[in-house]
Amino acid sequence: MQMIDDILKELAETKPEYISEISECKRILQKIEEEFRHMEIHIPRDRWLAIGAHVLAFVRRMTNGERLPVIEAELFAEIHPDMVMLSHKVLAEEKGPWQVDDTEAFLLAVHFEAIRAMQMGPT
Amino acid sequence: MSKVKIVIGDRLGKGQNIAKGIEAAGGTAIVIPGVGADMKVGDVMVSESADLGLSFCGSGGAGALTAKTKYGFPVEYGLRSVDAGITALRSGNKVIGFGFMDTEELGRRMAEEYIKLGGK
Which NCBIfam families match (chain B) (predicted)? Predict the structure, then answer.
């Protein structure tokens, strides 16, 4: 938990315009922390920082109703399907207005895949 | 005089159009292949002794911040336009992160500005 707070503090200092997205970002980062703890996979600090920046931008896109372009289906073959599934799971907002699409799930899953591959070897 | 060398890392492994723009401006472009390329921008900048790195994903932040954490490069990210990129370059940043923008114009103008600033 301290890691998440530290990361968010650093991000808020460098990107003060993202301050309104911080609390939602924290909720998603806590879900990620919990999932990786269950899998017994450690997330190094530099990966946390990258994920934090990504999730902050994700929350801003969702808040603004912004959609990224659809990505090619074949790119999904490059990462472990469990990481895509996990990404969908942590981004799903049960009470919120947004619908997470495959592009958003994929972009976060690439972060998860980088951590998974680093600690468990390539798929 | 050596050419300006710019590394491109895109989360989806793209950036070929940016590379064309860089080369049209007289620079050398290195496109990192494969998914997750944005996170390798700092590593490739160091291994290739590059002058500048460009990172692309939803905000370009992951690649830029990874490069800053690992190598101490000054970075700016979350940019959405070529003009914002030029401003970041003029401010002395070495890794600049954008949303997805694989355009020749971006590569050409960033390389031209770097040369104009006297970097090369």
Answer: EF_0830
